[in-house]
Amino acid sequence: MRVDFYQLTRDPAEAVLPLIARNTLSAGARLLVVSDDEAQLARISEALWTRLPDSFLANGRAGEPHADRQPVLLSQGVEPENGAKYVAYADGLWREEADGTERVFLLFGEDRVQAARETWRMVKARDDAEPHFWRQDGGKWVKAG
């Protein structure tokens, strides 16, 4: 499992997730976006539809009709009803249910830096996980670790 840590210092998760979703779909994969914050999920859904000027990213909610068909599924839970092997934790909270996924995106802000460090150490200690750290440098994402 690959785990990408994205430290959000400039943009919120809803600004970053359309780029992650576009790249995920371009790779032929589906994405599950998880957050405990219902308002954040609503902002993410809107951003997926409108943020990128050259395209929109179809998405739906877990538990709704046709959730299994959605290329990007938004959920408060970790069950990938759409069969996603990629999951984004938009609220910065690690979930142990990440096991079994191919790739995890952990997006976290300044308020979750300490928790992200602890998660990094846990992921780094695993034989079956490969952590990567990304930070914002101006308007670009730079791999920092």
What are the SSEs and their pairings?
Elements: E1 2-7, H1 13-26, E2 31-34, H2 38-50, E3 60-61, E4 72-75, E5 86-89, E6 103-108, H3 113-125, E7 130-137, E8 140-143
Task: Describe what this molecule looks like in 3D.
It is a single chain. With 145 residues, the protein is α/β, with parallel strands linked by helices. Helix content is 28%, strand content 26%. It has 3 helices and 8 strands, in the order E-H-E-H-E-E-E-E-H-E-E. The protein has helices spanning 13-26, 38-50, 113-125; strands at 2-7, 31-34, 60-61, 72-75, 86-89, 103-108, 130-137, 140-143. It has an 8-stranded mixed beta sheet, sandwiched between helices. Helix 1 (13-26) crosses helix 2 (38-50). It is globular, with a radius of gyration of 14 Å. The relative contact order is 0.24.
Which features would summarize this protein structure in a list?
145 residues; alpha/beta; 8-stranded mixed β-sheet; 3 helices; 26% strand; globular
Estimated helix fraction: 25-40%
Low-confidence stretches: none
Largest pleated sheet:
8 strands, mixed
Dominant shape:
globular
Distance between the termini: 16 Å
What is the average per-residue confidence, as pLDDT, rounded to a whole number?
94
How many H/I helices?
3
Which strand order spans the largest sheet, edge to edge or round the barrel? 3-4-2-5-6-1-7-8
Structural class based on helices, strands and sheet pairing: alpha/beta
Q: What portion of residues belong to β-strands?
A: 25-35%
Q: What is the H/E order?
A: EHEHEEEEHEE
State the total count of DSSP E strands: 8
From the alpha-carbon coordinates, what is the Rg to the nearest angstrom? 14 Å
